[in-house]
Design a protein that fits this description.
The chain is mainly beta. Helix content is about 15%, strand content about 45%. It has one helix and ten strands, in the order αββββββββββ. Strands 1, 2, 5 and 8 form a four-stranded mixed β-sheet that branches. A four-stranded antiparallel β-sheet has the order 4-3-6-7, with no helix packed on it. A hairpin with a 6-residue loop joins strand 6 and strand 7. The termini are far apart.
């Protein structure tokens, strides 16, 4: 009887700790560093130390939320068209620290220097002049 009671208490403790572990969250807001305004629809990838990956998009106001996380060490990667990738590593979610909020993650705009562009053209095999069309066979 005592073994059954101990087993039941242990089972309840295990289930309750598993339920609480599933409530861990990582949230925040992405900002365009150059203009200090929200960065909407960026891609966020959260990778655990075990290799599990969760992916989401930021909202219209740059906010994001990862929920139902297990205690682990995570790496967060943010990418958006026209911006440098931002990587935050060693993000620790533990039994004691289950809510992590990044108030503002500033993402730097990507600067692309374009090379010189040269436009070349050939004269076609015809010339259009007033009242006539001239065909050049040498071309």
């Amino acid at each position: 009887m005592k073994n059954n009671f101990t087993f039941l208490i242990g089972l309840i403790f295990f289930i309750s700790s598993s339920v609480f572990a599933q409530e861990a969250t990582i949230s925040g807001k992405l900002l365009n560093k150059a203009h200090n305004e929200p960065l909407p629809f960026a891609t966020l990838k959260l990778t655990s130390s075990k290799g599990d990956i969760k992916g989401i998009f930021s909202g219209e106001n740059g906010e994001f939320l990862f929920s139902n996380l297990m205690p682990d060490t995570y790496s967060l990667e943010v990418s958006a068209v026209g911006f440098e990738n931002l990587i935050k590593s060693a993000i620790v979610i533990s039994e004691k620290n289950q809510t992590l909020k990044f108030d503002e993650l500033a993402v730097q705009a990507k600067i692309n220097n374009l090379a010189e562009v040269v436009v070349k053209s050939n004269i076609g095999v015809t010339k259009v002049e007033p009242q006539k069309i001239v065909y050049t066979t040498a071309d």
